[in-house]
Input
Amino acid sequence: MYVILVYDMDQKRVGKMLKLCRKYLHWIQNSVLEGEITAVKLKELVVQAKAIMKDNDSLIIFKSRDERWLEKEVHGHEKSEIDTLL
Output
């Protein structure tokens, strides 16, 4: 499945969350990551993320069956271009 993950948390935990999420997804913007991931890996990521999170933190995941069902439009500078090379 293809996901877009967005998180909002206290600055003390942002670094830990980014490091965790980059193990599974591509970092595209501050607190925003995207990419292909299996259901098992996504569940693993969420469990580990919840261990980092506190009361006022949030994690939002948008899911799609495939990247081709998602239209992405970027204006301005893109932090991390994602190229799929086979």
Remarks:
- The mean pLDDT is 86.
- The radius of gyration is 13 Å.
- Residues 17 and 49 are 7 Å apart (CA to CA).
